[in-house]
Fold this protein.
Amino acid sequence: MKLFLDTETYCETPLKNGTHVYAEKAEVMVVTYAVDDSPVGTWDRTAGEPMPDDLDFAIDEADEYWWQNGGMFDRPVLSHAMPDLYARLPEHKWRDTMVQAYAHSLPGSLDLLCEIFHVPLDQAKQKDGKTLIQLFCKPRPAYSELRRATRETHPEEWARFLDYARSDITAMRAIHKKMPAWNYPNNKNELALWHLDQRINMRGMQMDIELAQAAVRATDKAKRELKERTIELTDGEVQSTTQRDKLLKYLLAEHGVDLPDLKKSTLERRINDPDLPDELRMLLAIRLEATMTSTSKYQTLLRGVSRDGRLRGLMQFNGANRTGRVAHRLYQPGNMPRPDVGLIARELGVEKLSDGDAERYTATGIDALKADCADLLFSNVMGLTANVVRGAIVAPPGKKLNVSDLSNIEGRKAAWLSGEEWKLQAFRDYDAGTGADLYKLAYARSFGVSVDDVTKDRRQLGKVQELALAYEGGVGAFVTFTMTYKMELADIRAAVFAALDLVDAEVVRESRNAWEWATKQKRTLGLEQDVYIACDILKRAWRRAHPKTSSYWPELKDAAIKAICSPGTTVRARRIIMRRDGNWLRVQMPSGRQLCYIAPRVSDDGQISYMGVNQYTRKWQRVKTYGGKIFENLCQASARDVLFANMPRVEAAGYEIVLSIHDELLTETPDTEDYSDRQLSELISTVPEWAEGLPLSAGGFEGYRYRKD
């Protein structure tokens, strides 16, 4: 028996502050429900009605409770607003149609799902329903004489509101039937992992409220001072450096500096120009400091934290499109900035950070912020608050944080999936302490030199090769990563051409031909000839050093085309199995979980496309893919499966998970020697049964405040 459930709630706390802080004061006005295909029932709690008998019976007898976004919304709401009912809903029976959609690479919006699966919706009723939600579920505007609309004040609207609430159950039930169930809920491992995810979300993590409040005060003060300095430096022409267009116009008119944009990378390059006038350097530095967005996380934290000082509801299970990784909500812990090493070194007055310098900077900075004197000790307060934002996550009294991160898991999965045996052995040797650094090794194999001869600069080139080229990336991808790691293209050109005699002549010839082709096609990316050729050489040299990986891209594309064009036929591509069933291309990974591509199509020129959420427009539309992109999806998804496979083991050992960020786990444990980051690392790097031969390694730290290790 399936029981479909939905609630309509009222709360004066804005939902955008976070579900859990909303739930603390929420009132459940209406519960709508249906058993299997039976008519939808309504429990109007505002009328003082007792629970209907059929709902009372179904709660105890149902095998499954189905909600739309119930895990992230209804569960915390019921735990606060209706604890007696919540106690009657055992966790193992909970299911979520939004998670079912995410698990099969579908969008979570019920309206959009209805559109995709052609579930009829009365658009007029839907529009009216949204208006009614605004009327009954939120407080009235401050200027309104009536603070809250109710069934007594608006009886006709209330009747329409109940009708709308029932329609949500009808739509949810229809969508549930039309969506696949391969990954969720039929995959029992995935279902159990979702239940664990729900416990983690309800657990939350402890936050340093005092630090957050101090950081907000400090940034507010710093912004006022930066605004005043901007006005002074520009004689009032620019009122704030956040005024992008005015600042660009002023720089050109007054200083003859024509900047293409005011991105961080652009500003940093110009600030480091020794010929730049001090006045202009100061103005650009102010712009760079004033636009640091990470400081807004403190405000989000303060709005969303629960009464007990914990921040909850941060992880959306399967929320990352296609791969099944966790997507982050509210505080967005997945995009916390890396500490700015250069800024920290300048603040400490050292040329290079030594062991403990970053920790000293962080500890001193947090103390200074809490004492409201950060501006007396640090020249860049905005930078300080950004650098210590991770430190807002702390251990509660009597506990400590144990944190561990899987080492280069995507690189390891890429080698394992493709069968790049030399690289798998290189990872094993490195883990054993007998092998070379993998970034050095990447450069060494590309140029045919000894690892011992790879300098620090050359290692950086190897790192960019590894990160940019594993998924069929070309010159454009390589250039993008060089910008990320603040590498100058002129230096790359010089490095490659200085070692040109070490490069296979055929590679050089192919790269020169590639330049000629790019010129004719007007696809040079605005690069100079020698820069383009140098980047292309690095690309081709890496591919030659990785024959199994390079050959896997076209193999995956060919397998996908064959599967799409031959429905019901199973196609194997090394460790991966593909098959088209109906309107779905199913790609089964070694874990048994499947990547899903809906409405796959092969064009006359061999281009693969499918329906999905465009990562840039966020719209549901046809998306193109290729062998390298499929490989990227597989590597990231399989890396996720490794971490998730070990999470139950971590919990069973007494490490309470409070957050996962990419390939890292944050846990709370008793503050005793029985728990350590070393043991946690061993737990998360346990090789699953389905991943035999995969070399895994992890490392981390323990402490009372989170940091970037």
